[in-house]
């Protein structure tokens, strides 16, 4: 069984038009998706002291996600308001991660020993991790995935890329030639395997020698919330399984990309990133 740890953000996604909210946040989603895919998973993040935080903790426990290394701080948990436009989620007001933004994770020696017991680490630009903590995660010797989303800056790319093994970037709306050039740039900065996700146009991976294009799978789209996180989760777990099976090169990348596309299509049919609707507060 593969083991994944997600370090970073948990929020509630509020849908005012529907009167409900759902657990969410990049790393919370990844940790739950890993369980759905049959892996052992953990979430290491910061919970606030409000009802949203308690609800998220309860959902993680129900889903079988390990949360023993999480922090608790006084204050509002993270939230983001969401509007659905033809099934595509559009973010509105948010509170910058709540306590996750106010109390960024500082990894302890005990945390690092714990993290070394996993097969893969997942983090993102939304995790509010200080850049020096990303370097520390990389020093654990466990493959580190980092989602730059579309919120990166050139400076952040330069500083972080050398310390991640898989760099995911959102390139929706960017043409294919520019996407290829961007992945070459990211690889030159020190990221061995950059991956561009392009929504309904699929994904593109560059390993320093070759490009691998993955078409999107057909999906009945209800809500695109979690599509990127689900792609990343399935990709990472398939990659970890492939390493254990002795796969490498094109064989392992093709399988990982296909797994990501299949699972992302499935998640697009779900309301909210992981379900578990709650009355809007």
From TrEMBL:
<dbReference type="Pfam" id="PF00294">
    <property type="entry name" value="PfkB"/>
</dbReference>
<dbReference type="InterPro" id="IPR050306">
    <property type="entry name" value="PfkB_Carbo_kinase"/>
</dbReference>
<keyword id="KW-0808">Transferase</keyword>
<protein>
    <submittedName>
        <fullName>Sugar/nucleoside kinase (Ribokinase family)</fullName>
    </submittedName>
</protein>
<dbReference type="GO" id="GO:0016301">
    <property type="term" value="F:kinase activity"/>
</dbReference>
<comment type="similarity">
    <text>Belongs to the carbohydrate kinase PfkB family.</text>
</comment>
<dbReference type="InterPro" id="IPR011611">
    <property type="entry name" value="PfkB_dom"/>
</dbReference>
<keyword id="KW-0418">Kinase</keyword>
<dbReference type="InterPro" id="IPR029056">
    <property type="entry name" value="Ribokinase-like"/>
</dbReference>
<feature type="domain" description="Carbohydrate kinase PfkB">
    <location>
        <begin position="19"/>
        <end position="275"/>
    </location>
</feature>
